[in-house]
Amino acid sequence: MATAFSATLPLHGSSSQENRLLLPPTRLPPPPSSFLGSTRSLPFRRLNHAHAARRSPVVAVQEIVKEKKPTNPLLITKEEGLVLYEDMILGRSFEDMCAQMYYRGKMFGFVHLYNGQEAVSTGFIKLLTKSDSVVSTYRDHVHALSKGVSARAVMSELFGKVTGCCRGQGGSMHMFSKEHNMLGGFAFIGEGIPVATGAAFTSKYKREVLKQDCDDVTVAFFGDGTCNNGQFYECLNMAALYKLPIIFVVENNLWAIGMSHLRSTSDPEIWKKGPAFGMPGVHVDGMDVLKVREVAKEAVIRARRGEGPTLVECETYRFRGHSLADPDELRDAAEKAKYAARDPITALKKYLIENKLAKEGELKTIEKKIDELVEEAVEFADASPQPGRSQLLENVFADPKGFGIGPDGRYRCEDPKFTEGTAQV
Amino acid sequence: MAARIHGGAGAGAATALSTFNPKKLVAPSRTNLPAARSSKRCIVAGGGSDASKSLSVRHSQKLIASAAVATKAETSATTGTGHELLLFEALQEGLEEEMDRDPHVCVMGEDVGHYGGSYKVTKGLADKFGDLRVLDTPICENAFTGMGIGAAMTGLRPVIEGMNMGFLLLAFNQISNNCGMLHYTSGGQFTIPVVIRGPGGVGRQLGAEHSQRLESYFQSIPGIQMVACSTPYNAKGLMKAAIRSENPVILFEHVLLYNLKEKIPDEEYICNLEEAEMVRPGEHITILTYSRMRYHVMQAAKTLVNKGYDPEVIDIRSLKPFDLYTIGNSVKKTHRVLIVEECMRTGGIGASLTAAINENFHDYLDAPVMCLSSQDVPTPYAGTLEEWTVVQPAQIVTAVEQLCQ
């Protein structure tokens, strides 16, 4: 089926079908990226989804794409390409530095690195504005960076310093930024999805109840393991029901710690679950930032126009273990090698150079700049102070009267020891 | 009209129960609920308290002091104008006023919109404010509670209803992790000004799962406040205060109290979320209670007064945090404490309160703190068994007699 996506120049010179994961012979391959159009009506047409799809606005998107780039067969301009490249390099370098710092004892606990999945974060988040929201999981460093949170703030947070984006109180799994509308950072899988749904609800509420000019979208990132969790389905239902401006992005890296997606899911094709709830479900090659970006564009446009949610399944892979504590012994070396060969950064670099969008030297400059940025972030984090005792009781409540009234009749937060962090609460 | 914050006892409030008609209860308990009146005597600000207390809230308005025991005739005379309504109407009034006042306040829950709420607390609101502001959700507590939290983070002020408090067990993930902790883990960047409310408690033969008391489960969650309303006056006041609070507040209502009738002031008022309510001042013993057990206690108080005791009854109202000032003052006066609650014995509010009192006021106690709670038993369906799982007035009388020996 001809779609906007097969019309593009994919990085690997072939349709996504050839790049699909090695499935056991009994399973059917996932179809090429097909964008099942929105069914504007209620679920009555559920049985005819396939047919409804062909009447979808996919054609309209092709026209939009054509309008935007009448003469340019390439998917991106040079500026865009460099932005994407820099963002992915930032993600990769930062995560590599995290690993180093962890093994040097600068950060502790659970640290989950994003190496290999940069195309998803960059592909989606670089299309968003500052007022759009992003919700992530524990693998959230790179989402925060892509959204605009400074490397310094993220690194300091990882080091547990006061200058961290959450004052050292959140840690690796809780990256929040009000300024950049990064709504976290959640440790339990799936628990961020309702929060994302709420942010999208606010957007709709602002438009329809408060009559404000608001077309903010929310992008929720989560993994394949989450797609077996109830919260995911509950939110798919509500988002489609209320036509919320949200994009559900599944970063299917095939593994939930040591649990293979195929072993835990009755139907591993996650994109199919979208139409079951009345929203389009799209499968895209998540190692190809340009493909991800094209899908993201359409999903964002849909959301901004008030047409409702989209479920996007990105087939991707994490080059490292689940976390820095994971020995990563279960995954097959051949599988790892196969995906390493599809490194999104290498692919984009090749695309930029081959299409004469950038020279090697320019890209090297970017890499060097990012290296320095990350080094500087580490220095900053190292030099930053640890939180003092006085911070212990702050931020538990937005209104610290919530600690109540002590035996002496004063609110506990008025106790001078409160600001020292030693008050009895 | 500017809101007046009433501190301490129900200043200006009508008596809780002078017009109370037990037959109007949804499910009247077998014991005869009182025509008992609560005293309207208030803690007058200056009396006996440390003048250096700086909090304007506690000393703000001139509190109306009145006679120690209210009589029927005195009720309407002292309060003057006001209007009479049922508890669920008081909740609705509070909610509606707040929704009028701030367009960011919205409601979400099952059957809150077109159905008007399964206990009619949101009746008529969907017609007035629309389907998006009074949102009928599908049956997915965890997800819609999380949705409310996400909406709160991004600027709205949702009131999330659990059709029965017990259903919120399904939302525990969101309530604990996101509602309670997110303000902290985000380093104070995001506030969660939600109100989570719903009816709980033992009803009339509703069965074990519909008769749960979730206050004990939620009390450890850092970052949330819990309040329990017990009269139309404090129901409206607490609802308004909870909505205006920047903190996440869980408002516990009781299934059997929705049809309580009381006269409440016409002018706007808010109750303080962190304060306890003096129901009946006394000298011999402090009885701490909340929600429905307040009425069992007041019934027992009637018997006790006849027997010559003078119990001081405090409705703690704020389940988390405890108002240790009001409680402490009382303990210092009477030296005996009885806690009467509907919560389970193990790990309930009473257990925490006992610990707090022992920790803070041990020297003032003449006897160990006694706590009467519900049995650690899933609430049976059979009426007789159900009656025996909760504390009855006769037990309260016995306990007081025992403590006052």
Automatic annotation (TrEMBL), chain A:
Residues 1-34 are annotated as: Disordered. Its EC number is 1.2.4.1. Residues 356-383 form a coiled coil. Residues 87-387 form the Dehydrogenase E1 component domain. It is an enzyme of class 1 (oxidoreductase). The keyword Metal-binding does not apply. Its cofactor is thiamine diphosphate. GO terms for molecular function: pyruvate dehydrogenase (acetyl-transferring) activity. This is Pyruvate dehydrogenase E1 component subunit alpha. It comes from Brassica napus (Rape). The gene is BnaA09g51510D.
Automatic annotation (TrEMBL), chain B:
This is pyruvate dehydrogenase (acetyl-transferring). The pyruvate dehydrogenase complex catalyzes the overall conversion of pyruvate to acetyl-CoA and CO(2). It contains multiple copies of three enzymatic components: pyruvate dehydrogenase (E1), dihydrolipoamide acetyltransferase (E2) and lipoamide dehydrogenase (E3). InterPro entries: THDP-binding, Transketo_C/PFOR_II, Transketolase-like_Pyr-bd, Transketolase_C. Its EC number is 1.2.4.1. Keywords: Oxidoreductase, Pyruvate, Thiamine pyrophosphate. Its cofactor is thiamine diphosphate. CDD domains: TPP_PYR_E1-PDHc-beta_like. The keyword Oxidoreductase applies. It comes from Brassica rapa subsp. trilocularis. The lineage of its organism: Eukaryota, Viridiplantae, Streptophyta, Embryophyta, Tracheophyta. The keyword Oxidoreductase applies. PANTHER family: PYRUVATE DEHYDROGENASE E1 COMPONENT BETA SUBUNIT, PYRUVATE DEHYDROGENASE E1 COMPONENT SUBUNIT BETA. It comes from the Eukaryota. It is an enzyme of class 1 (oxidoreductase). Residues 85-260 form the Transketolase-like pyrimidine-binding domain. The gene is A08p032820.1_BraROA. Signal peptide: none annotated. It catalyses: N(6)-[(R)-lipoyl]-L-lysyl-[protein] + pyruvate + H(+) = N(6)-[(R)-S(8)-acetyldihydrolipoyl]-L-lysyl-[protein] + CO2. SMART domains: Transket_pyr (SM00861).
